[in-house]
Amino acid sequence: MVLAGKVFIVKEDADLATISGKLKGYRSEEEFIQGEQKIPLIVEVSNLALAKDSLEGVFSQDVVFTVNHREGSKLVTKTMEAPFLFAKEGDRIYLIVLEKKKVANNIANMMSKILFISAGSILEAKIAPETLKKFHEANPEDTKVIFFDDVDIPNISKLSLYGSVLADTALYNDYCTHGNIWYMVFKSRHYGIVVGVTRSAVVTAFSEIQPPDFLTYIKEEVFPLIS
Q1: Is residue 223 a part of any domain in this protein?
Q2: CA angle, 60 then 66 then 71, to 5°
Q3: Is 168 helix (H, G, I), strand (E, B) or coil?
Q4: Residue 147 counted as domain residue
Q5: Distance between CA 43 and CA 79 in Å, rounded?
Q6: How many separate domains does the chain show?
Q7: Range of the domain at 164
Q8: Is the CB of residue 6 less than 8 Å from the CB of residue 99?
Q9: Within 13 Å, how many C-alpha atoms sit on residue 140's CB side?
């Protein structure tokens, strides 16, 4: 099963104990109304575990779906649960949300509002294209896929290299002159899993790995890549 996550950076000056205090017991409810149907939607933070340099928990949110029925369409709710981790590394506090990009972004914005009143206090983490380039060139045999963007060739927006083609240094160097690396798929030597990483710190595990181990992987191997 593919497991996805995204890394963010806490912009505001805060500590894990304060963050834990604000998130502990958090629960909000609002009513979704469509016609005569009214459904309470709950957002909740649970399973908080504070350690010396980390704070783990689960962010849950009710989402409304429309289901077609013989008697007409009906609204139903589904509770989405996303594990998250705040981790202190040096003078930074990172946030990892184990969800796909769009959902992770929404959760990060909601976390920002809960903790700091408004959105914009938890920002996207960034990985420089030069960092991804150095990472590949240090372990070229482990790289499976590279995508380039910001391509300067007319009518071409992206370039890609797959599999054995990556061993062609001349072609790789040529692509590097025309664009920047924005996405790489590679095998982690330490963990033995195949992972994809984008410049906006979206991380996808294509090998089987449990969420706690995936969080540890991101801390150990993705955090050092972030600008």
Answers
A1: no
A2: 135
A3: coil
A4: yes
A5: 9
A6: 2
A7: 129-199
A8: yes
A9: 10
